[in-house]
Design brief:
about 20% strand; about 300 residues; disordered N terminus; three-stranded parallel beta sheet; D-Maltodextrin-Binding Protein, domain 2; alpha/beta
């Protein structure tokens, strides 16, 4: 026989207080556990050893200064190696009385001065592209000497900030030009040139010629002198190079105007830059800063004046 006890109000209140006390105990235990865990974490954090400081990417050079690895390589060697093509191109670069002179040479020497070391000019390269390759392969710190920026060169070297800009020009054989122009306006014929165009092979001008005058019949020569001979003889209708070189020819011999004429493209230009190996990022930044802060910024008229002097 089951016996049922009637729950009184007092019993109910007692059970309620037991439940409340149980919850309080649980909360207290949990709080104690959390405090212990936090205390343990704090102690662990306080007693954990300091992380190892990352190794500096800089290199100490002879004078104790810390510099980038590519700058350190040059400073520790004690000289800046600059590659320039073997043939002279005054007033940009040439040898006079056993010393290198010219506007490009001045830029190189200014970089050396800021580094606090002398410049050694390596002139073993026989072509402009060979100069670029010397910088790309690390055989020279810098390649320079009227070197223009091209897409081909951009695949293997970094370009400095341009130190000079030259517009592109044609020098044209009047007789041969008349044969291809007919009744058309000269400006239209030149802009859409489809005659024979002489230029220096294995140079930036070969890339410029094929890109800017896709209808032209490109004829390459090993030197600028040979290009000029070709246009004078009528072997090609026009020769293609920068405005300075074209104006230089006409200034030197005004009589050539009887058989030759010039045309300058104001919307096509070359930016002359220094070529630096893709791994030498600090050197590139340094060179750009030197170029930006220099006082001498030559123009075509200044260069022509220097030639007369």
């Amino acid at each position: 026989m089951k016996v049922f006890h009637r729950r009184t109000r007092q019993d109910t209140d007692s059970m309620r207080w037991v439940g409340v006390l149980g919850r309080i105990v649980k909360v207290g235990v949990l709080a104690t556990w959390l405090m212990m865990d936090m205390s343990h974490g704090l102690v662990s954090a306080q007693t954990a050893p300091d992380p190892i400081a990352p190794k500096s990417p800089l290199v100490k050079v002879r004078n104790g200064q810390m510099v980038a690895p590519d700058i350190a390589r040059i400073l520790n060697r004690g000289e800046l190696v600059v590659a320039i093509i073997s043939s002279d191109s005054a007033p940009f670069f040439s040898e006079m009385d056993g010393a290198m002179v010219g506007t490009d040479v001045n830029v190189a020497r200014l970089i050396g001065k800021e580094l606090g070391i002398p410049v050694r000019f390596d002139r073993t390269a026989k072509t402009f592209e060979a100069v670029v390759d010397m910088a790309a392969e690390g055989r020279a710190d810098i390649g320079m000497g009227r070197l223009a920026r091209t897409t081909l060169r951009a695949q293997k070297v970094s370009f400095s900030t341009p130190y000079m800009t030259l517009q592109h020009s044609f020098i044209i054989n009047r007789l041969e030009f008349s044969k291809i122009s007919g009744d058309r306006a000269a400006q239209s014929v030149i802009r859409n040139f489809n005659g024979t165009l002489g230029l220096i092979g294995r140079s930036a001008w070969e890339e410029f010629g094929r890109r800017n005058f896709p209808k032209a019949k490109i004829v390459t020569y090993t030197s600028w002198d040979k290009v000029l001979e070709a246009v004078k003889k009528g072997e090609v209708v026009a020769a293609y190079r920068d405005q300075f070189e074209i104006q230089k020819i006409m200034h030197a011999d005004p009589g050539l105007a009887l058989t030759l004429r010039t045309a300058t493209f104001k919307d096509i230009e070359s930016s002359l830059s220094l070529m630096i190996g893709i791994q030498d990022t600090a050197l590139l930044s340094f060179v750009n800063e030197v170029i930006t802060m220099r006082h001498e910024k030559p123009t075509v008229s200044m260069l022509l004046k220097e030639l007369k002097e």
